[in-house]
Predict the structure.
Amino acid sequence: MLAVAHLNVWYGVTEILRDVSFDVPDGRIVALLGGNGSGKTTILNTLTGLVKPRAGSVLLAGEECAGLRADQIVRKGMVQVPQGREVFQSMSVVENLEMGAATRRDRAELRAGIEDMMGLFPTLARKSRQRAGSLSGGEQQMLAIARALMARPRCLLMDEPSAGLSPVVVDTMIDAILALHRRGLTILLVEQNVGVAAAAADSAHVLQNGEIAFSGPAASLLDNPEVLRSYLGR
Ligand SMILES: Nc1ncnc2c1ncn2[C@@H]1O[C@H](COP(=O)(O)OP(=O)(O)O)[C@@H](O)[C@H]1O
Ligand SMILES: [Mg+2]
């Protein structure tokens, strides 16, 4: 589904990503791990056209996305859930979902999309008319995911969905990610929480200083002391 090859990104005079390559096969969950500042968000921003790479290729289902505008990439089916549960605080849950479908015009389709999200996230259904700002952190994160799904992605990019959530809510988040997986969605999951990556992803890549330092099955991360210590600060 997604093939990223030899990405090179600079901010001004600083090289941020160096020769980053990885694939996300159809219907799989691939995790991208790494400490603060290792370049995880920059990778997602580059995939979705918010940052222009100096070199490299981003193929989505065989089509080149590098160099396209952000709205063109959304239409091709690659959608990012931003870091830090950025929802429109003063809008209701339903209004937030409508914003996510801005690229789709058909009313009936919009209603069907909202119904679908309410089924997938029952807490959002119960609070559909509430202001997004009144939701808990976990609920806002679910809303951010649901809003991204309203654009009907083929490939969903999630930026630290478990950040700042309590352990119980993190478990709910893992369940939600696995539910999306069962629907056949292809997911690139950026995390700092190794437990979430190990529980949800098929394979994982660990980023250090803008380069991929380790790649392997996600389940192997937890029993690889060197990876935990050297790259993930555990
Ligand atoms: N807009 C920007 N301009 C300059 N440097 C940036 C910008 N955004 C991020 N950086 C730098 O790029 C590096 C990678 O950041 P980021 O991709 O946000 O890492 P992560 O998501 O892994 O925490 C960091 O050193 C950060 O300071
Ligand atoms: Mg980040």
Q: What stands out?
A: Residues 156 and 187 are 5 Å apart (CA to CA).
